[in-house]
UniProtKB/TrEMBL annotation, chains A, B:
Residues 172-268 form the Peptidase M20 dimerisation domain. It comes from the Bacteria. Its cofactor is Zn(2+); Co(2+). Homodimer. Keywords: Amino-acid biosynthesis, Cobalt, Diaminopimelate biosynthesis, Hydrolase, Lysine biosynthesis, Metal-binding, Zinc. It is an enzyme of class 3 (hydrolase). GO terms for biological process: diaminopimelate biosynthetic process; L-arginine biosynthetic process; lysine biosynthetic process via diaminopimelate. The keyword Metal-binding applies. It comes from Leucobacter edaphi. Pathway: Amino-acid biosynthesis; L-lysine biosynthesis via DAP pathway; LL-2,6-diaminopimelate from (S)-tetrahydrodipicolinate (succinylase route): step 3/3. One of its GO terms (molecular function) is succinyl-diaminopimelate desuccinylase activity. Its EC number is 3.5.1.18. This is Succinyl-diaminopimelate desuccinylase. It catalyses: N-succinyl-(2S,6S)-2,6-diaminopimelate + H2O = (2S,6S)-2,6-diaminopimelate + succinate.
């Protein structure tokens, strides 16, 4: 059983200790649903698989969606969680799988969902399954397709780890396979062939020298990245290779569409024989010019920055809802085996979000 | 049964039609051994596995080793052989597996071994197994280790296809694996890592621009080659790769030792984290300044050129025996599914070798 009455830090420990690797979220979703049924009669609760949507229906002028995923990456001898003191900073921490990504964020949200029967804005609380796996499996994406009306909102907050600061929007991401062709020949007579691996060298040198753009969108700076992530070529130890392919990953500012990003990649590799777009996902503009976003930023303090990794804010962005990331924990520790979250960030996140929801934006 | 009495062209057809893919040479070796026992009492015959060494013991002042391999690469719907007329040249040809590499050469040798009871030099005829596979399996190498005294000679002729011209010595070959290291990072924050694939770009560009040397050894020009033959790197589609390795093949002139060749490769890739020599095989100097070699060249005519691919002449060279390649067929058709040898080259090779062996060098 989970119980928010001892506060969000204790609730973080409880949520972490319910194993919920992607595909195995039923137990934690059941616990959340039961808690809401018993302790949050002010919420109307909907369930889609292991995704739970719980809404206030107060008739407020504005509505905010606040979301977090329930799943984690695989456990690696790092459950149950432990209380530790960080060697370097001396901070009290909770150590273990899910502490950063993102049970602490879910705990802050779930405690407030139960406690705040009459927030100043209507709130749609969302906890969902299958975030840490292929985008096609996403519980948030599925629930949005099945009942889009449940997700209408003026602003969205996603509890992904941001060290308790606001990180707006996110970069888009695109993968492409870049092919260089050649002509086979025996390597004793290399001049009768064309070496495809050698042909790929110019593109790699260009990548090594390339300075990706830093693009300001709605006041936040997005740092792009263009990288070879895989390379493969060759036939045999005595054959001039006739094929070499480079897989590249382009992280692009949310001011570009995926189509525009694909054009950037095609132009960059204009010496290739083909550029095949493998997959792509749009970024999300930070939307910090929206009044609700500005009020939220003022309430929680600190200078908002750009989110660099792709997150589910882009699913809200695709529905026309400005969205930011805001959660406890260092995003660089997400998925790390020594994942750990400072207790103080959980309390601060809880206090900031509570103040804003009570006072209204 | 094989029967050289109808000449080397008919014998070529007979030898080709005994399937003898590497590892399956017993039938052809048995046929050769039986023929020699019945028709060549002037030879002393030794067998080691499927390698046969047949020597005249005439007490001549000089001895010549004449060798050819009995095996072929796999059959691919190209046996039995057929007589064809070449579309372009109008030449009469024998088409099928082994015609070029190197049953025609073996047929010329075997016919002369039976016919010439009293050549002007002593001759050591050698037909061996396992040439088309790993060097460690070579029947010639094995027989040389088991009974080195059988292989002593002043000059050696290997019947590999050379279009009926003398191709002297051979290039050496060396394979190396060149490693570039990096540092992993999430590709959304590429600047926190070091991209090993990007680091390999400069080496590939250098390879693409590199003009390998042409080196004159004993009067013949050897064209070197330095090529990437395989490349491999990458971890996942969203990870900056921490490793990239390039496999390179260096074909080096016989004036360099394998150790010197390894140094050339290490200096070329001086920006790599490591250069691992995978294997190497020495080349062979052409030895055309030896009196026997000069006499042979004069007898068969044409301008000797350098052999570019590695061949077993280097095994003779390693024993201090000057060695050349001389056989019917276009080396560019070796291993091709439409392998085919001009009948005229078989007859000419037979006539040239016979004249030289009868007249003495």
């Amino acid at each position: 059983m989970i119980d928010p009455s001892e506060g969000p830090v204790a609730l973080t420990r409880q949520l972490c200790d319910i194993p919920s690797v992607s595909g195995d979220e039923r137990a934690i979703a059941d616990a959340v649903e039961r808690l809401l049924a018993e302790r949050a009669p002010h919420l109307s609760v909907h369930r889609d698989g292991d995704t739970i949507v719980a809404r206030t229906e107060l008739g407020r002028a504005r509505r905010v969606a606040i979301a977090g995923h329930l799943d984690t990456v695989p456990i690696n001898d790092n459950l149950p969680v432990r209380d530790i003191v960080d060697d370097v900073s001396g901070e009290a921490m909770i150590w273990g799988r899910g502490t950063v990504d993102m049970k602490a964020g879910v705990a802050v949200q779930l405690a407030l969902a139960v406690e705040l029967a009459e927030p100043a804005v209507d709130v749609t609380w969302i906890w969902y399954d299958h975030e840490e796996v292929s985008s096609a499996l996403s519980g948030l994406g599925r629930a949005m397709r099945n009942a889009p009306e449940l997700f209408e909102a003026d602003f969205a907050i996603l509890g992904e780890p941001t060290n308790g600061r606001i990180e707006g929007g996110c970069n888009g991401t695109l993968r492409a396979r870049v092919h260089y062709a050649g002509k086979r020949a025996h390597s004793a007579r290399a001049w009768m062939g064309v070496n495809a691996i050698h042909r790929a060298g110019a593109a790699l040198s260009k990548l090594a020298a390339f300075e990706p753009a830093r693009i300001v969108v709605d006041g936040l700076e997005y740092r792009e990245g263009l990288n070879a992530v895989r390379i493969d070529g060759g036939v045999a130890g005595n054959v001039i290779p006739d094929d070499c392919s480079i897989e590249v990953n382009y992280r692009f500012a949310p001011s570009r569409t995926p189509e525009e990003a694909a054009d950037v990649v095609r132009v960059f590799f204009d010496d290739a024989d083909s550029v095949e777009i493998v997959d792509s996902a749009a970024g999300a503009r930070p939307g910090l010019d929206a009044p609700l976003a500005q009020g939220f930023a003022a309430a929680v303090g600190g200078d908002p920055t750009a989110k660099l990794g792709w997150t589910d804010v882009s699913r809200f962005s695709a529905l026309g809802i400005p969205a930011v990331n805001f959660g406890p924990g260092d995003p660089l520790l997400a998925h790390a085996d020594d994942e750990r979250v400072p207790v103080a960030q959980i309390d601060a996140g809880y206090a900031g979000l509570r103040a804003w929801l009570e006072r209204g934006a």
